Amino acid sequence: MRELLKAEHIAKSYSDKKVLQDISVSLNEGEIVSLLGVSGVGKTTLFNVLSGLIMPDSGAVMLEGEDITGKTGYLSYMLQKDLLLPHKKVIDNVALPLLLSGVRKKEARERASLLFEQFGLNGTEHKYPAQLSGGMRQRAAFLRTYLCGKKVVLLDEPFGALDTITRSSMHEWYLKIMEEIRLSTILITHDIDEAILLSDRIYIMKGSPALISDEIVITESKPRSPDFVLSEDFLRYKKQIKELLI
């Protein structure tokens, strides 16, 4: 696999509190890598460093060999909340990255509308976010993130607000769409089952200041069968992760 993103020896403090300590992570082309850890351990701080929103105290972030430390606009970043603008139609919410990059409104709408079918959003173009289900709002947010035009996507708990049934269908959809549009993903989650089902690798973050204590490789091929959650392998991964998080 070709390595796309690498962060090496990242450390970050706020005032006199050290949050991250000597963290190194990587992402290969086509992978989903999860960051798994308790709330407040520093996962979002690490994402803010990776995306260039904040500078680390030490360490570097490299994208395909280029140093992007402290530089924004190289990675797509989707927060837990969909952040769709309630007063704008879905087509205009989705087209926003194109508009911000200088594309005219008509062309931005046309380019975005070509992807609505692929993202399962047909018929929603002229609705408002409040008229969509949680799953459809997340699809719209994913499409907006994709139109940022980056190869690497950072997802901060994107499925956390969804009910169990919707979340399961969104997992299947995301794996399919990610392969179709050739994305590589780093995912923050608190859900052990979600991390095992979606990931190629899982980083365990723990401690204060936080560090990467362990890396787990999930060898089961994707997409994983519905019965995988009942398998001995799945339960073994889950038991291992729970023990590592203690």
Please explain how this structure is put together.
The chain is α/β, with parallel strands linked by helices and 246 residues long. The chain has helices at 43-50, 90-94, 96-100, 105-113, 134-146, 164-181, 192-198, 232-245, and strands at residues 3-14, 17-28, 32-36, 58-63, 66-67, 76-78, 152-156, 184-189, 201-206, 211-217. The strands form two sheets. A six-stranded mixed sheet has the order 6-7-8-3-9-10, with helices on both faces. A four-stranded antiparallel sheet has the order 2-1-4-5, with helices on one face. Strand 9 (201-206) and strand 10 form a beta hairpin. The radius of gyration is 18 Å and the shape is globular.
Q: Whole-Å distance between the termini?
A: 32 Å
Helices and strands, in N-to-C order? EEEHEEEHHHHEHEHEEH
CATH class wording of the largest domain: Alpha Beta
The CATH homologous superfamily of the largest domain: P-loop containing nucleotide triphosphate hydrolases
Strand portion, in percent? Answer: 25-35%
Low-confidence stretches: none
Helix content: 25-40%
Number of domains: 2
* Radius of gyration, CA atoms, in whole angstroms: 18 Å
Q: What do the pLDDT scores average to? A: 91
Multimeric organization: single chain
